[in-house]
Task: inverse folding
């Protein structure tokens, strides 16, 4: 739907008419100049894209770690299965406790196999569990960043 | 990879780039970088500014690659992004309202005596050059240009008409047809 312009003045026999000229000017515009530094330009754009991608990955990883840490902290501070909670809350609390117990048992079994049987998870305080979970999350995030950076 | 990047069509490369393929997008930059840079220069941008805006346009294109449906050419799509970025830049500086006439410029030819569009465009005033380039280089319609430049439609049409009249006069040495030592990009 491009507009066109039509000059009012008539053209001589040797001159190109407006009808001929409009397509011709489009053809001239379609011809791109041969720029000697074309390869350098491409490399610069690729470099910028790569840099932007790295920054994004780092920002997302950082946000993930912070979010994970906050989530773990909040989970640990919730008084699950409180006797004053509603029935649905109790049911949810029991479910989470059950999963937590199973996970704890699995981890404890793993520790036993590694010869770390003396390390009793059940006896750990809330803060110890928090730092272990936070450490695991950070390690996972770092592994993710490493893998993404290798892909780039 | 069964097919090399060079053999792939722009639409295919754009689809792969939309999925995060930077190598595929790099191939698109290699193919169309000069065309986008050339258009910005024709619009009146200094080479360094043209390159900066072209880079920004390609980065924006990469981020918005999923929006490219292949209805037009990929080059035309990026050119429009670049043109809009340039308009934003000149609008800040209010440059396009300035009338700088250069009526005495000689007909433009390159070393081989062939017509040179880039040289001929230098003979146009800044608004004429911008409007002609947006219309015939970036493929924008007159109302679209008017909206982008915040100018009345009649003014845009007038700039395009006068610009084309001047180009016609400058690009047409007697007895020669239009052509040039350039490649289709």
Result:
């Amino acid at each position: 739907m491009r507009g066109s312009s039509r000059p009012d003045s008539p053209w001589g026999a040797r001159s190109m008419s407006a009808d001929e000229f409009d397509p011709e000017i489009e053809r001239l515009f379609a011809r791109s100049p041969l720029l000697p530094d074309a390869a350098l330009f491409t490399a610069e754009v690729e470099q910028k894209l790569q840099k932007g991608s790295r920054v994004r990955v780092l920002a997302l990883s950082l946000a993930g770690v912070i979010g994970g840490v906050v989530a773990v902290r909040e989970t640990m501070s919730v008084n699950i299965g409180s006797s004053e909670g509603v029935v649905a809350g109790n049911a949810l609390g029991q479910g989470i406790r059950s999963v937590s117990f199973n996970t704890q048992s699995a981890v404890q079994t793993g520790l036993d196999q590694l010869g770390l049987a003396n390390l009793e998870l059940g006896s750990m305080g809330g803060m110890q569990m928090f730092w272990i979970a936070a450490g695991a999350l950070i390690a996972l995030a770092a592994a993710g960043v490493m893998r993404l950076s290798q892909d780039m | 990879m069964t097919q090399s990047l060079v053999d792939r069509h722009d639409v295919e490369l754009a689809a792969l780039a939309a999925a995060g393929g930077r190598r595929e997008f790099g191939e698109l930059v290699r193919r169309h970088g000069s065309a986008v840079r050339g258009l910005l220069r024709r619009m009146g941008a200094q080479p360094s500014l043209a390159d900066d805006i072209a880079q920004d346009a390609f980065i924006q294109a990469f981020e918005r690659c999923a929006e490219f449906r292949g209805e037009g050419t990929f080059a035309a799509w990026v050119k429009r992004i670049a043109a809009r970025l340039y308009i934003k830049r000149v609008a800040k500086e209010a440059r396009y309202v300035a009338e700088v006439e250069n009526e005495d410029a000689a007909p433009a030819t390159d070393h081989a005596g062939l017509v040179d569009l880039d040289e001929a465009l230098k003979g146009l005033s800044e608004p004429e050059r911008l409007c002609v380039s947006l219309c015939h280089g970036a493929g924008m319609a007159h109302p679209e240009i008017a909206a982008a430049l915040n100018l009345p439609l009649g003014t845009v049409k007038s700039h395009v008409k006068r610009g084309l009249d001047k180009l016609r006069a400058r690009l047409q040495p007697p007895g020669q047809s239009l052509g040039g030592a350039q490649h289709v990009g």
